[in-house]
Amino acid sequence: MPLLAQDANASSIQVLRHGSTEDVAYSATAGSTSALTNGVYRVVASSDCHFTLLGTATTSDAYLPAGAVEFVRVVDDDVISFVQNASAGTAFVTEML
Predict the structure, then answer these.
(1) Which residue segment(s) compose the domain that 74 sits in?
(2) What predicted TM-score, i.e. pTM, was given to this entire model?
(3) Does the residue 4 lie in any domain?
(4) Which of 1, 19, 66, 83 has the fewest CB atoms within 10 Å, counting from its CB?
């Protein structure tokens, strides 16, 4: 029996399950997660925003449209920082196991 899930054609596909989620409020002032552990995280936001894993987010960082899902790889003690594009919102950062 295969360890990976399979699609309709019996081809293996990699899947992860959801772990805990951290909500991060942001506005014109950046908001950040707490220190994260090594792994993959699913990121989605309620309004258009910018994010980074390299310090405090600015509008020059990666753009994340509202409702778009992004997966990011982090190493121990990284934080993800968010700042609004035009309006405040909440980012949801879910650990993938």
Answers:
(1) 16-96
(2) 0.86
(3) no
(4) 1
Place of tokens 């054609």: 9
User: Where residue 71 sits, what CATH number does that domain have?
Assistant: 2.60.120.10
| Start-to-end Cα distance in the chain | 21
Dihedral angle sign, alpha carbons of residues 70, 35, 80, 44: positive
Tabulate helix, strand, coil % of the chain (nearest 5). 0, 45, 55
Give SS3 for 50: strand
The series of mean pLDDT values per 10 residues for the chain, 97 residues long, is: 71 83 98 96 98 97 97 94 98 96
Does 35 map to a domain? yes
- Determine, yes or no, domain membership for 3: no
Q: Do 88 and 26 touch, CB atoms closer than 8 A?
A: yes
